[in-house]
Structures are given as C-alpha cells and as structure tokens.
Task: inverse folding
C-alpha cells in the first residue's frame, strides 16, 4: 500500500469513528429524553391514581360511619313503625350518598384522565421533537 492509500484509509476510519460517536451521542440524548418523558407520564398516572384512590377511601370511611349511625337509629326504634321509618330513612340516605359519591368519582376520574392524557401528549410531543 502506498502512503496515500494508508492515509486515505486512516482518514475514512477516523471519519467513520467520528460519525459513529455523533450518532451514539444523539441516540443517547434522545433515549434520555424519552425516559424522562416516560417517568413524567408515570408520575402523572400515579398521582391520578392516588387522587381517585383517596377519594374512594374517603367515601368508604364515610359510608362505614353512616352505616353505624343507621344501625344506631334502628336500634333506638321502640316499635315496628319507628324501625320501618328509620330503615327507610337509612335506605334513602344511602342511595343519595351513593349517587353523589358516584357522580363525584366520575367527575374526578374524568379530570384525572384529562390530566394524564395531557401528560401523555406532552411526553409524545417531546419525543417527536427529539427524533
């Protein structure tokens, strides 16, 4: 081989190495940004799940307390008429409470879904701009 051929091959190898490093650097940067977005998206999902879960738990605690109050009212009845009146009142109250709680959970879930969808959109947008 001539010196010119050797130098040419060395230059080509150096250029290929530099381009490989550039590609690896860009790929690593894109991957890091993608994983950052995934972490942000997962955080939004966990936050939303926590909010809805807390509301469901609060409803549970409220319902247990109301059940005990209802049982106390039934226990205080002196006759069948009072018992029936207390039982009917308990059922009406429980139905209204359940209806309101269901409505609130549905609204909260919709809000959480919207926020999580926005987090997904932002994550997707960040990753598209990186590519």
Result:
């Amino acid at each position: 081989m001539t010196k010119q051929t050797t130098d040419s091959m060395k230059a080509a190898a150096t250029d290929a190495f530099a381009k490989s490093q550039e590609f690896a650097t860009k790929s690593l940067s894109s991957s890091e940004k993608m994983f950052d977005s995934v972490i942000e998206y997962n955080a939004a999902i966990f936050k939303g799940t926590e909010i809805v879960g807390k509301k469901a738990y609060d409803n549970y605690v409220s319902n247990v307390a109301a059940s005990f109050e209802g049982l106390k009212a039934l226990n205080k009845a002196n006759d069948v008429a009072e018992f029936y009146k207390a039982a009917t009142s308990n059922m009406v109250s429980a139905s209204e409470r359940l209806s309101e709680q269901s409505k609130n959970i549905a609204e909260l879930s919709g809000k959480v879904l919207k926020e999580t969808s926005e987090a997904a959109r932002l994550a997707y947008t960040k990753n598209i701009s990186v590519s």
About this structure: The chain is about 95% helix and 0% strand. The radius of gyration is 32 Å.
